[in-house]
Amino acid sequence: MRVAVVGAGPGGLVTLKYLKEATKFFDIDPIDVRLFEREDEVGGTFTKRTYEDAELVSSKYLTCFSDWRADLEDPDFLSAKRFIRYLKEYTDHFNLWPEISLSTPVTSIRRDQAGGHIVHYRGPDGIDKTWECDAVAICSGLHVTPNIPDVPGIDKVKIVKHSSQFKKREEFPQGSQVVVLGTGETGMDIAHLAVTSPTKRVVLCHRQGFLGAPKKIPNPILFPILGNKPNPNAQELPIDVSWQAPLLDSYLPPFLRDRLFTWRFQDINIKLANWLCSGTTAGVDQWIGGLDADRFHTSQMSLIEEYHFKLHGHKRIDYGVHHESYAYQLALDMDAVPSFWDGVRVGWNAGAKHPGLWWRLPVLWLTGAQFNTKFRVVGPYQWDGAVDVLGGELWETITRREGLFGAFIMTVVPMTMVGTSSIIMWFVGLFAALLSAIGRIAKGTFWRVV
Question: Can you tell me where the transmembrane regions are (predicted)?
Answer without folding.
Answer: 423-442
